[in-house]
User: What shape does this take?
Amino acid sequence: MTRRPLTLVYFAASRLWRVSMASLRPVDDVGSDDDDAPVVYVILGSQFSAKALLALDAHGIPHRVVFVPLSRAARRLPSDASPTVPQMTHRGAILTDSEDILHHLDDSLGASCFPARVAREASEASVRASDGVLAALVLHYNWVDEPGYRRSMRAAGVRAMPWYVPLCLSGAVVDRLARKARASFARRVRKIVAKTLFDGDDAKADATLADPAETREALVRELEWFQATLKEAPFMLGVAEAPCAADVSAFAQLERLVGTMGDASVPPSLPELASEPRLVRLMAWRKEMSERCPIRFKGKRGGRGGAAR
Ligand SMILES: N[C@@H](CCC(=O)N[C@@H](CS)C(=O)NCC(=O)O)C(=O)O
Assistant: This one.
């Protein structure tokens, strides 16, 4: 095929894909929720959504899940003030950040994401997992790093392509659709890495991110910090009863590197990390987490008045 017809097919495919994405609406909505259960708005496979869902499941809190589309234009969320997921509604409250959701679970729903004995440490570790080097490098390996992107987000995108996109073109269509997002993630990753590791020095961040061995070393070092929070107990910071905020935040991020995001089945972006000799204890904790509280997005739509478990 010459270049021009190929461009046309691919332009038509992306237009169609955009239209079909825009026509996706939340499959359920809070208007029908007349019970007391919280309703969580998620994108399937999102690590921040998984963090909230893990906390709800691990603490036995019945809830309903509403899937929202990837397309920002088509996304209808409880709060207009924030376009991101997760968002959660509960008894008139609207929470628009995963960390706030965890606090709400403790304050109003009887969870113990921040057990009194280690509340400050759990909060610090949770914020570090969600906003620091780990979260940045999860974006890097899923979106920016070419081999990681191909293994994870590109593969997931190809799988999600509608039937009318020929298989031989679907990778190119995904690349085209993901181009802006990938560039924006690259800027975000650089900013976080510069700020957290190099006192804001962008050139040093660039040098690290351009070198796969150095990027991986930065990731392993960050994960060693989380590993050091593991004591005898099954969960971080010596917590025995149920996963705390640190566990759910770190686990949700780690799954985008070595797991499949539970029932969302997103391919891992850096599967070889699972056999890193410096992270043996962390990977044992990860196995324990996936057995005790797997990430569950699906099967929680519930019915009118019905909680979702
Ligand atoms: N600080 C937020 C971050 C949320 C976030 O970045 N969510 C991503 C999904 S993993 C999102 O909504 N991305 C879609 C978009 O930005 O349009 C939180 O912890 O809830």
